[in-house]
Structure formats: C-alpha cells, structure tokens
Amino acid sequence: MTPIFSQAALPFGQFSIFPMFIRSVMLATVLAFPVTSHADEESLLINGDFEQVEQIKPEEEDRYNIGQWILGNTPGLFPKQWAVHESHPGTITIVSDDVRSGKYALKVQKGWVYNGFRCASQALLKLRFWAKGSGSVKVMLFQYEKGPDGSVFQFLPTAEVKTIELGGEWQEYTFEHQGDHPDVNEVALAFAVSEEMLVDDIAVCMP
Predict the structure, then answer these.
(1) Sheet containing 82-84: order of strands
(2) What is the dotted CATH code of the domain comprising 4-205?
(3) 172-194 tens-digit pLDDT
C-alpha cells in the first residue's frame, strides 16, 4: 500500500501549498485536457515536456508566487502549468543545452515544484519521467477533492510515491500509484529536490 502522511504530520509550511495550488489553477486555461507526450502516451499532465515557457517580468512575480525562489534565466522564464512551493524555495531554470528531447528541460535546485491535473477517483496512475542530477528527489502526489467550479472541498493526505537517488546520466523512471481515497478527483505531481534535478518528458497516464 502506498504510504501517506496526513496534513497533521506534514512539516510546518507544507500547508501553504494548497492556496498556492488554487491560484496556479486559476492561471491555467486548459488544465483538464489531455496532451500527447514524446512517447505518444496520452498524459493527464500538461507541459510535461517543458516546451511551453513564458517570460516573467519582475512586476509579475507575485502572480506566480515566486517569493524567495530564484529564476535561473535572464530574463526570467517559467514553465506553463507548473508551480513552485513557496515554503520550499530553490532555483528554477529552463535549460536548452542539456535536454532529453525537444527544445527545453527543467532544472530545479533545492526546492519543490508541482503540476496539477484532474483524474478519476481511485484511479491507477502510471508516472513516467526522465531525470538526472545529484542528491535525492521525493516524488509525491498532492490530493484534492474539488467542485465543478474548481473550488476545493477538502485537502486530502499526500501520497509519497518514491524517493529516488539521481545520477549523472539521463534515466527513465516509471512508477504506478493506486489511488485509495474515494473523494480524490484532482492531484498534483510534485518533486521535492534535495540538491539538483534535470527533468524532462513527464507523463501521467491511466493505463
């Protein structure tokens, strides 16, 4: 059974991800529509290949909840549909010189990033991504029950999928997570990076 930790057991500061997640969803216009990944899988998660980026002007940083995060690009670039955890800041960079495929990949240094999507209740989710770097990365799913208008009914326990140790070469990681809470209808795939992670070609599917 997939281990979970309740909201009460989470370290102080993780609670702030929920209002930030709501604001990030308000910025999304196509959150509920599937896209096709590089591997031709129908993915519930949008922009898992990081090909959609946008420039952030300094006066717009509050809208993206940048806070203490450092934007590694000049001018600042940000992957569409993604969000940063304001209580676990680090550095986020769009890179073009070390990618798995396409034009861009994402580099995260010591921080938490996440991307939300709709899914069926108690769904079996297949997670696939390519990554490299140093240190460990905790792969998690933040879970929510939301209404038709996107409002949150309740914040549900976070599922810890796996903690991985990264190496210096691109490697594919594949995990399955069986949802076990009947009220979940939206989740966010989250990465908690201890040192540095390059990530690309993320897909979340219901096999």
Answers:
(1) 4-5, 152-165, 136-146, 186-193, 112-118, 82-84
(2) 2.60.120.260
(3) 999 999 999 999 999 999 999 99
d(CA 48, CA 27): 17
CB atoms within 10 A of CB 105: 27
- Token pair 């070469």 in the structure block, residue: 169
Residue 167: CB atoms within 10 A of its CB come to 11
Determine whether 87 is exposed, middle or buried from the number of CB atoms within 10 Å of its CB (0-12, 13-18, 19+): middle
Distance CA(184)–CA(188), nearest Å, equals 11
> Domain limits of the chain?
4-205
Q: What is the DSSP string of 54-99?
A: EEE-GGGGGGGT-TT-EE-SSSEEEETTEEE-TTS--EEEEESSS-
pLDDT the model gives residue 146: 87
- Digit-coded pLDDT (tens) for 41-75: 689 999 999 999 999 988 888 888 899 999 999 99
pTM: 0.80
